[in-house]
Amino acid sequence: MVKLVVRDKESIQEAVRRFRKLVERSGIKKEMRRREHYEKPSEIKRRARLRAERRARRTRLMAGA
After folding, report:
1. Mapping DSSP to helix (H, G, I), strand (E, B) and coil, where does residue 37 land?
2. Which pTM does this prediction carry?
3. Which of 14, 26, 54, 55, by CA, is between 20 and 30 Å from 48?
4. What are the structural domain ranges in the chain?
């Protein structure tokens, strides 16, 4: 949960800007997007496998350089 204490003499715009940054850093937006639609377990596994393949490919390229 993100909590924001509004400072003395802080404008609403500044407080909203700080709140957005806090939400972005906490990962709440990312989690909301992920939970927006149901994802089948097979799709989750497929995405994880593709991510691992990309990571392996990247490490192979870095090791060769």
Report:
1. coil
2. 0.54
3. 26
4. 12-64
